[in-house]
Amino acid sequence: MRLLLKTKEMMTITIVDINPDDGKSDLVTISDDNNYSLDGGIYSPTYCLGDMIWKDIDQDGIQDDGEEGVSDVNITLYNHPMRSLEQILQIVSGKYEFCNLSSDDYYIVVDKSTLPDGYEITVKTGR
C-alpha cells in the first residue's frame, strides 16, 4: 500500500508497507536526500492447545451433554521428543489450555494419580 501525504512545504512523504506475502516493498526513489521509509514489523505467530477432561458417564470417549468437566487433574505438555514443557492444574470446569506455543509437534500426559478416586481414562469407542 502506498499513501502520499502533502506537507505545508509541499513535500511529498511516502509511507510504504512491506508485502507480507513476498517480502517486497513498494518502489521508492532516492533523490537528493535520505529515505528511511522502508520499514516493516515482524512477529512470531503463537498458538494454543487444549480441550477438556470430563466425567465420561457412558464410557464412550465422547463428551456428551451433561458430562461435566473434572477439576484438579494435572496435565503435562510435551514436545517431540519427550521434553516436558509446562505443567498446569486444570481449572474448575475441566478445561485446560497451553498457549504461546510455536509450530511443532506436541502431546499431553494426564497424571492418573490426580484423577478423582475410582476414575480411569476412557477409550474412544464411538458407541
Summarize the helices and strands and which ones pair or pack:
Blueprint: E1 2-6, E2 12-16, E3 47-52, E4 74-79, E5 83-89, E6 95-101, E7 106-110
Antiparallel strand pairs: 1-2, 3-6, 4-5, 4-7
Question: Summarize this, please?
Answer:
With 127 residues, the protein is mainly beta. The chain is 0% helix and 32% strand.
Structural write-up:
With 127 residues, this protein is an all-beta fold. The chain folds into 2 domains: 1-42, no CATH class; 47-114, Sandwich (Immunoglobulin-like), CATH 2.60.40.10. It has no helices and 7 strands. It has strands spanning 2-6, 12-16, 47-52, 74-79, 83-89, 95-101, 106-110. The strands form 3 sheets. The chain has a 3-stranded antiparallel beta sheet with strand order 5-4-7, with no helix packed on it. A two-stranded antiparallel ribbon has the order 1-2. Strands 3-6 form a two-stranded antiparallel sheet.
CATH superfamily of the largest domain: Immunoglobulins
Structural class: mainly beta
End-to-end CA span = 55 Å
Report the sheet-strand fraction.
25-35%
- Main sheet: which strands, in order across? 5-4-7
**Computed CA radius of gyration, to the nearest angstrom:** 26 Å
Order of secondary-structure elements: EEEEEEE
Q: How many domains, in number, for the residues? A: 2
Tally of contiguous helical segments? 0
Return the CATH topology of the largest domain: Immunoglobulin-like
Unreliably modeled segments? 1-15
